[in-house]
Amino acid sequence: MGDNKVTPAVTARILRLIPGHDSVIFSEYTRLAQTEDVLRFCLPDDSRAAESWLRFLVEAGRIDDAHRTWEWVAERGDADDNVNASMSSFSTGKVGPTWQHMLGVATYAQIA
Q1: Distance, CA of 31 to CA of 71 (rounded, Å)
Q2: Are 88 and 76 in contact (CB under 8 A)?
């Protein structure tokens, strides 16, 4: 997102206040920024937004970015048992009910 730190601050605030805009914002993040920049500058200090970003990356098939985000979430202590179980099963290729719950039935059917 370049040198413009205003845009990440604004989008992070929107993510914190209005969850319904996650996918629009995340689409822009994947188009304009590297995952490391998103993790450092663009996500609010909010486990909901981090989990939503992780889910977005998996749905988009951005597996390397999803793994890096999972590590970041775990480093911050935001990974609850559902997120850990989901990423563990995903990492080992055992996609199952946990991912179905996390991603939603329609998305699960596409990747299963």
Answers
A1: 22
A2: no
What is the per-residue pLDDT for 67? 87
Q: What pLDDT is attached to residue 77?
A: 75
Q: The tokens 């590297």 sit on which residue?
A: 34
H helices of 1-112, in order, are 6-17, 22-32, 35-37, 47-59, 63-76, 81-91, 97-103, 105-111
**77: alpha, beta or left, given left = phi > 0 and alpha = psi -120 to 50?**
left
Residues in the chain with pLDDT values less than 50: 4-6, 94-101, 105-112
Strands (E), 1-112: none
**Which residue type is seen at 53?**
W
Q: Report yes or no: 77 and 57 within 8 Å, Cβ to Cβ.
A: no
Q: What is the pLDDT of residue 97?
A: 45
Task: Find all residues with CB under 8 Å of 49, minimum gap 6, and list them.
Answer: 12, 15, 16, 19, 22, 43
